[in-house]
Design brief:
The complex is a heterotrimer of chains A (336), B (285) and C (309).
Chain A: H1 5-32, H2 38-43, H3 49-59, H4 65-77, H5 91-126, H6 131-145, H7 148-162, H8 184-190, H9 194-231, H10 234-241, H11 246-284, H12 289-299, H13 302-330, H14 332-335
Helix pairs in contact in A: 1-13, 5-6, 5-9, 5-11, 5-13, 6-9, 7-9, 7-11, 8-9, 9-11, 10-11, 11-12, 11-13, 12-13
Chain B: H1 2-36, E1 54-55, E2 61-62, H2 73-109, H3 111-125, H4 129-140, H5 144-171, H6 174-181, H7 186-222, H8 234-243, H9 250-277
Antiparallel strand pairs in B: 1-2
Helix pairs in contact in B: 1-2, 1-9, 2-3, 2-5, 2-7, 3-5, 4-5, 5-7, 6-7, 7-8, 7-9, 8-9
Chain C: E1 4-15, E2 18-30, E3 36-40, H1 47-55, E4 62-70, E5 73-74, E6 84-87, H2 91-94, H3 101-113, H4 117-130, H5 147-160, E7 165-169, H6 177-194, E8 198-202, H7 205-211, E9 214-219, E10 222-228, H8 229-234, H9 239-246, H10 286-290, E11 296-297, E12 301-303
Parallel strand pairs in C: 3-8, 3-9, 6-7, 7-8
Antiparallel strand pairs in C: 1-2, 1-4, 4-5, 9-10, 10-12, 11-12
Classes of the chains: A mainly alpha (336), B mainly alpha (285), C alpha/beta (309).
Pfam families (chain C): ABC_tran, oligo_HPY
Organism (chain C): Fervidicoccus fontis
Membrane topology (chain C): Peripheral membrane protein
């Protein structure tokens, strides 16, 4: 295929756009598939006649379905996700309050997973089938088979009860921290409050570990297998023949090629992390999007669930797009 | 070449053996408990609230302790085993059959039908599975059946794409063209010629999806969207148990361990089947 | 000090059934810097393994015994002193797909000669031109080049190493016939002009005759005949060599019979007792089935066959 880089990029963007539209449609359909008056389900326990009237007029629930969709679309266009009838405030506000917390947790977990899984995977690949390799590979399978629920609860026991780490929230509410970046770890330092920093770290570490452990198991296994597959290819022999330093062979030749399948799978791993995130935030009472979903389910606030699902999906589509772009950069063969 | 295959086959079979062993042990224990347990999984007891290994008022031992409503944990877990595994099997059956059919039709017939089906599958895949399951389950209402439905829907695209891919590559094969030319009906071609080749990969995928299905249902129940009280279900037990973690750590932990062992067993089996059927895997030199 | 002397080289591989010998007691020499030694044999006879053993590129589950003296230095004992370049058969697989040609060749200069990247690239351009490629090749990726161009890149890479020995393992087998001839021409001319000794591995005896000055024939892990090329063609001694020659139809001779060798070459670990060729040899005697023949040395040749003892 004689596609240039621009054309490939263009088609990829279109693909993301279609996915986005599809998601919006699916979420809309789901909200209208509810039997009976959607307003009742949306309002849940707050379904008074006047509230019902309010919701019906706001979303045009008495109009034909196509019109409802237009109303829904136009609201989305303006960035409005609706009102959280049960929990209060607007959905937008709830989500934007919780998003940084999830963001920090997920990124921290990813970094931890990479720091653990990648080097161990490299070590395991050095001597395949050796005792080290078998031990590490078994560890990996063990780690990735652990349901996030169990890891979370065990870590909660370990850190929360046994070690006495603080749990719940991102930082002790007695500290007042000015928000600069949205990252509590950074903000506490920027505020000059080392105690707050340590406190925030103690609260962040257990849930991040809970997320990171299964992920690092996956990464370990993937890294090991990818390196082994690449190492058996001829160009590695060529590199060795050139008597380049071992470090150069590993990084410039083996890893640069082995990374490609690993990065490609990262997008998928993001889904794994997001899934685990919801569970972990619930267990550790971490004030992020995951816990927001949990609370919304408990309180039966459908608008919040709908809005959060939409936001998470958008982020996921975006991350996948990013991963594909990075892949395009890494592998010149795709560029054509 | 033959020797390489034999080693990896050997290890794969060993994995399947361990997995099956573990699974059988769990299944057997649960079965025995269910048959002989003096406790009713839903009978609450004020006198035995949240006790660890101890004895009940009637003298029978609570081997794994009780939960916050005084119900024997071991009995509940044994129910949960068959419930969750059963639910998992139902899910992979439903989603597998639908996915298989869609993949077969899409791959074989091609054309606009194929494009449409695949577009829908692509869109379904562009939402993280668990998130979409949440959206569906939330829309339909919190119950175990709705959770099953939600997870099944979410799992369909995997099978559809896999099967379609295989169908497309098999379609090129001569013997299919020969049959087609000979006037055999399309349906028969699909069933007799294409299906047998698709099946091994399909079964492998399904066995690997089983753990996933169980995890998703447990996850949904964990956040309140799946099984409801008093159903004994792993996710639900862990969710409620979490609140009592200080006083009764065994309440959330034992269901977790039980679920973990079961998932591990299925993962071992699924991995083993996959390695056995794919001789190209160079995991062992 | 001759460029290459291989003494009693054995290569064993570890398998489920223990160690299996794939290359058996090989003795070879290259006598001068402008000599090309051809190594000919069927697939599975061990010729590629021999090449990998000499260049130190065998996988970890292998074992090498014996001596490989390159300019007097035993590279088996001192692997670091090795300066042997290998030109592989599949150039696309032999090149790193994510690096440009320039980067892959320049790194040789950067790491061996401590050059700056800029100077290294300049030298790279020179060596690319030497093998007949334009200097804008340095910015291209392997998948952007044709098969012949890629093979030339491998040749350039070998030259950039300024090696004491080049081993070419079926470098043109994967190419079209017309391209094959041109690339071969380039290879031979640079090797001769730079006076680098070369081992040319191939299964094609006719090809070997075009390229090599001397030819060693390998069968089932052993060298069974060595002769300089004219001698080999005028007077092939080992029955296997004769069979190889006869199975190529020739225009300059009447074909008495198309001598087709029956059976398949034996697999390492399952070698016949005695002479390894005896099951397929029309001249096999009882002796051949029991005792392994040694090498018989003639004036310009050596054979491993009881017919000549």
């Amino acid at each position: 295929m004689e596609r240039g880089l621009i054309t490939t990029l263009f088609f990829r963007l279109i693909q993301s756009f279609i996915a986005l539209l599809g998601v919006i449609v699916i979420i809309f359909v789901l909200s209208r598939v509810l039997p009976g008056n959607p307003a009742l389900a949306i309002l849940g326990p707050k379904a008074t006649p006047e509230n019902i009237q309010k919701v019906m007029s706001e979303w045009g629930l008495d109009k034909p379905l196509a019109e409802q969709f237009i109303i829904y679309l136009s609201k989305l266009f303006h960035g409005e996700l609706g009102e959280a009838y049960v929990m209060g405030y607007s959905v937008n506000r709830l989500i934007s309050e919780r998003l940084p917390a999830s963001f920090e947790l997920v990124i921290f977990a990813f970094i931890l997973a990479i720091l653990i899984g990648l080097p161990l995977g490299i070590i395991a690949s050095r001597r395949p089938d050796s005792k080290t390799d078998l031990a590490l590979s078994s560890l990996a399978i063990f780690g990735l088979s652990f349901p996030t629920m169990l890891v979370g609860i065990l870590l909660l026991l370990l850190f929360g009860l046994y070690l006495g780490f603080p749990v719940g929230g991102r930082v002790d509410p007695r500290y007042s921290i000015n928000t600069y970046t949205g990252f509590m770890l950074i903000d506490t330092l920027l505020n000059g409050n080392v105690n707050a920093f340590l406190d925030a770290l103690k609260r962040l570490l257990p849930p991040a570990l809970a997320l990171a452990i299964p992920l690092s198991g996956l990464l370990l296994r993937l890294t090991r297998n990818s390196i082994l597959e690449v190492s058996s290819l001829d160009f590695v022999k060529t590199a060795k023949m050139k008597r380049l330093p071992e470090r150069v062979v590993l990084y410039r030749h083996v890893l640069r090629n082995a990374m490609i399948p690993i990065i490609t799978v990262m997008g998928l791993y993001f889904a794994v992390v997001v899934t685990g995130d919801i569970i972990v935030e619930t267990i550790f009472a971490w004030p992020g999007l995951g816990r927001l979903i949990y609370e919304a389910v408990m309180l039966r606030d459908y608008m919040v669930i709908q809005g959060t699902v939409l936001v998470i999906s958008v982020i996921y589509i975006f991350v996948n797009l990013l991963v594909d772009l990075v892949y395009l950069y890494l592998d010149p063969r795709i560029r054509g | 070449m033959h020797r390489v295959e034999r080693i990896s086959n050997f290890l794969a079979i060993r994995r399947i053996k361990y997995g099956l062993l573990l699974l059988s042990a769990l299944a057997l224990i649960s079965l025995l408990v269910l048959l002989f347990s003096p406790f009713d999984p839903t009978e609450t007891s004020y006198y035995s609230l949240a006790k660890p290994l101890s004895t009940s008022s009637r003298g029978w031992p609570f081997i794994l302790g009780t939960d916050s409503l005084g119900r024997d944990l071991l009995t509940r877990l044994s129910y949960a085993f068959y419930l969750d595994v059963g639910v998992g099997l139902v899910i992979i059956t439903i989603s597998g059959l639908i996915g298989l059919s869609l993949g077969l039709i899409s791959g074989f017939i091609g054309g606009i039908l194929d494009s449409v089906i695949m577009r829908i599958m692509d869109i379904l895949i562009s939402i993280p599975g668990f998130i979409l399951a949440i959206a569906i389950a939330a829309a339909l209402g919190s119950s175990l059946w709705n959770a099953i439905f939600a997870v099944a829907i979410v799992s369909i695209p995997i099978y559809a794409r896999l099967v379609r891919g295989m169908v497309l590559s098999i379609k090129e094969n001569l013997f299919v063209t020969a049959a087609y030319e000979a006037g055999v009906s399309s349906f028969r071609i699909m069933i007799k010629h294409i299906l047998p080749h698709v099946m091994p990969i399909f079964i492998t995928q399904a066995s690997m999806e089983l753990s996933n299905a169980i995890l998703y249902v447990a996850g949904l129940s964990f956040i309140g969207l799946g099984a409801q009280e008093p159903t004994p279900e792993w996710g639900l037990m862990m969710s409620v148990g979490r609140k009592y973690i200080r006083e009764a750590w065994w309440y959330p932990v034992f269901p977790g361990i039980h679920m973990f062992l079961t998932i591990l067993a299925f993962n071992l089996i699924g991995d083993g089947i996959r390695d056995y059927l794919d001789p190209k895997r160079k995991l062992r030199s | 000090m001759i460029p290459l002397e291989i003494r009693n080289l054995n290569v064993d591989f570890r398998t489920l059934r223990g160690w299996v010998r794939v290359v058996d007691n090989v003795n070879l020499k290259i006598n001068s810097d402008d000599e090309i030694l051809g190594l000919v044999g069927e697939s599975g006879c061990g010729k590629s393994t021999l090449g990998l053993a000499v260049s130190g590129l065998l996988p970890p589950n292998s074992r090498v015994t014996g001596e490989v003296l390159v300019k007097g230095q035993d590279v088996v004992q001192n692997p670091d002193s090795r300066k042997i370049a290998v030109i592989f058969q599949d150039a696309l697989a032999a090149l790193n797909p994510v690096l440009t040609i320039g980067e892959q060749i320049a790194e040789i200069y950067v790491y061996h000669k401590n050059m700056q990247k800029k100077d290294a690239l300049e030298k790279t351009k020179k060596v690319l031109v030497e093998v007949g490629l334009p200097d804008n090749t340095i910015d291209k990726y392997p998948h952007q080049l044709s098969g012949g161009q890629r093979q030339r890149v491998l040749i350039a890479m070998a030259l950039a190493m300024e090696p004491d020995l080049i081993i070419a393992d079926e470098p043109t087998t994967a190419l079209d016939v017309t391209v094959q001839a041109k690339v071969l021409q380039t290879l031979m001319s640079v090797v001769k002009s730079r006076k680098i000794p070369m081992i040319y591995i191939t299964h094609d005896l006719a090809l070997a005759s075009q390229v090599a000055d001397r030819i060693a024939v390998m069968y089932a892990g052993q060298i069974i005949e060595i002769a300089d090329k004219y001698e080999l063609f005028e007077n092939p001694r080992h029955p296997y060599t004769k069979a190889l020659l006869n199975s190529v139809p020739r225009v300059d001779r009447d074909i008495e019979e198309l001598f087709i060798i029956e059976g398949e070459p034996p697999v390492p670990g399952n070698f016949p007792t005695g002479c390894r060729f005896h099951p397929r040899c029309p001249f096999a005697m009882d002796k051949c089935k029991q005792i392994e023949p040694g090498l018989v040395i003639f004036n310009k040749a050596m054979v491993r066959c009881f017919l000549y003892e």
